[in-house]
Amino acid sequence: MILGRGSKNGNDAPYYGRHFDQWRITCATQWHAFIQHKFFLSLADGSLPPKNFVYFLRQDYIFLLQFARAWGQITSKGSDISEIRMATAMMHQLINSKLQMHIELCNDEGIDTQKLFETTENPATTAYLKHFENVGASGDFIDLMAVLSPSFLGYAEIGSFLASLKTAPKYQRWITTYTDKNHQVSCHHIGRVIDDAIVQRLGADAMTTERWQTLCDRFRITTKLEVNFLDMSLSG
Ligand SMILES: Cc1ncc(CO)c(N)n1
């Protein structure tokens, strides 16, 4: 099974705007390590041991709670209604839909809600969240989009690939949240918001500016932290 076709050679990875596309290209090695991670391959064919799925879900619960807060932080950095609307929609979806699903999936696997809430944070999770925190404290809207978009749009890219496969039924509920058509539509919208936000702040030639390099660095660090998070889930 081949996962995660990078978009750089005109192949069929979904297109979430030109700046995101370029971010993916500038860290192609890390991006492929993320998108093609064994965790997703084994989730797709059903060979992932349930204990690793549960380990992932429990750490991901901690992750998503902070991830939602980071989108909340973005609302205060947005410059117009479309940026603020996008961030509040993300926060709403994470808090009221994704986290709820994690609770239910954990319950199904024998982890009751209280036990989930008491999960000890793994250092890989802590390191990842620290990166959000650091950039959130000093960065503006586009810094935060560079930091958060690999997580959100990366999982959407994985979802779009999984949608083209006949996946095993075992982890179907989780898979469906990322393959869902509405989810893809909202990701394309986020890609457009990112493009507009960058042009508004850095101009049409944003990619030639010094600031652009910082955004690429932030994006690459998140991508690497995603890989570490998945490695942790397989070894946990
Ligand atoms: C670690 C991680 N990254 C991204 C997503 C997608 O929202 C997720 N659920 N967990």
TrEMBL record:
Residues 31-234 form the Thiaminase-2/PQQC domain. It comes from the Bacteria. CDD domains: TenA_C_ScTHI20-like. Transmembrane segments: none annotated. The keyword Hydrolase applies. The keyword Cell wall biogenesis/degradation does not apply. This is Transcriptional activator, putative. GO terms for molecular function: thiaminase activity. InterPro entries: Haem_Oase-like_multi-hlx, Thiaminase-2/PQQC, Thiamine_Salvage_TenA. It holds the Pfam family TENA_THI-4. Its EC number is 3.5.99.2. It is an enzyme of class 3 (hydrolase). One of its GO terms (cellular component) is cytosol.
